[in-house]
Amino acid sequence: MYLRSKTKVITILVTFWSIVCLQPASSMPIVDAIRIGDYKNKTRFVMEMNKRVRFNVFTLGRPYRIVIELPKIKWKIKSSNLKKSRRIIGYRFGLYRHENSRFVIDLGRPIRVSKAFHLSPSGNRKHRIIIDLSDTSPADFFKNIKRGIPKTFNKTISQKNFKVKNKTLKKETPLIVLDPGHGGIDSGARGLRGTLEKKVVLALAYELKKQLVYNNKYRVLLTRTRDVFVRLRERIAIAHRAGADLFISLHADSIGKKHVRGGSVYTLSERASDKEAEALARRENKSDIIAGVDLNEQSNTVAKILIDLRQRLTKNNSVMFAKLLGKQLNKKILMLRRNHRFAGFAVLKAPEIPSVLIEMGYLSNTHDEKLIRSPRHRRKIAKAIKIAIDKYFTIRKSMRRP
Ligand SMILES: [Zn+2]
Fold first, then answer.
1. What's the gap in Å between 78 CA and the centre of ligand 1?
2. Disulfide check for 145: which of 12, 126, 154, 266 has CB 3.0–4.6 Å away?
3. How far is the CA of 188 from the centre of ligand 1 (A)?
4. How far is the CA of 239 from the centre of ligand 1 (A)?
């Protein structure tokens, strides 16, 4: 919530819409090296690849970021390649939407993209994208900003990717939307052994789907079926378009306190139940910032959605489901002491769809991480969720009876 209403994120489009030739669609371009040259007046960023690609560079404010948009890329970058510099404090890269990739650079200060160009192979160097970053003042950074992201890269996810496949089932069959958190450029939390949240939550979603569709009692739709980034707003929209009866977002957290472990269930509230829940929502809501999304363009939609009066009824159902979930999960896995909490999670804001967010445990805890990686443990979690879903719909049905 706070990201959408309070933060005014501004986008600039630096007009290095560097169109170079489009390569044949034969095989994906491979980026295999990143080099940074730090100078007094500029930092030179070099990305080396086997093919010439078209790219686009723009900057985002609050926090300061540079986004390089590229076609679908195979990333073969060693982490030792990713050096920080006095202007660059972090990097992320991966799939963004279905057909393009992003490389996001976190900046420690406002910068200006003074140059962005392509260099053809020479000597033992391959194709290169060169971006020069120079210092600028915060005032100039925001003054020079032009809003908008080039349309070419701004396609929304096509509906066809999210059609409910099981058409033989009637419309009355409840539709459950499972939302594996993060994906693509946004890896989510990272475990001590390197487990990525985006991978384990997708595995849990697949397991849960398998159990739910088993006896044709439910239709199931996933907000993502592979390692791709999906905006928070888009996740809600997918559930909305499909007419979901229940929305379940799946996550695995990571925090500084390594001894903390256990699962938990969250529902939406503008007032967080406690500091931890609030901090967690803040971490989860960061997903769009991580991927370099211009939050300006989506703030209105979410605001509109929030006003909906049906939200109160939805909230009661969300809370009822969360309680059932907490009870069932408690029987199968270790849960936090107060296992149902609430906070302002952006992804739970669909006005008409009861929504909950499940944190399956802590990747920052050795024991939890080991369990979360285990398919057997994930089957247990899925089983508990399925029982809670069964109970939820039994109660809903009985409530509807005259
Ligand atoms: Zn998460």
1. 25
2. 12
3. 5
4. 18
- What pLDDT digit, counting tens, does each position of 205-214 carry? 999 999 999 9
Give the SS3 label for residue 68: strand
Spacing, Cα 39 to ligand 1 middle (Å): 37
Is the domain 159-400 a CATH 3.40.630.40 member? yes
* Structure confidence at residue 26 (pLDDT): 55
Of the candidate ranges 144-148, 162-166, 256-260, 286-290, the one whose mean pLDDT is the lowest: 162-166
| Ligand 1: centre distance to CA 262 (Å) | 15
**CA 334 – ligand 1 centroid, Å:** 18
Q: What is the mean pLDDT of residues 248-254?
A: 96
Distance 140 CA to ligand 1 centre (A): 35
Contact 292/102 with Cβ under 8 angstroms?
A: yes
Cα 126 to averaged position of ligand 1 atoms, centre (Å): 37
Q: Has residue 377 got a pLDDT over 70? A: yes
Cα dist. 36→61, 86, 102, 155, 201 in Å? 22, 11, 18, 31, 34
Query: Which CATH code for domain 9-153?
Result: 2.60.40.3500
Q: Out of 103-112, 168-177, 261-270, which region has the weakest mean confidence (pLDDT)?
A: 168-177
Length of the chain: 402
Residue of 119, 105, 49 lying closest to 77 (CA atoms) = 49
Question: pLDDT of 20-34, one tens digit each?
Answer: 334 344 589 999 999
Look-up: residue for tokens 């957290």? 253
Span from the CA of 382 to the centroid of ligand 1 (angstroms): 17
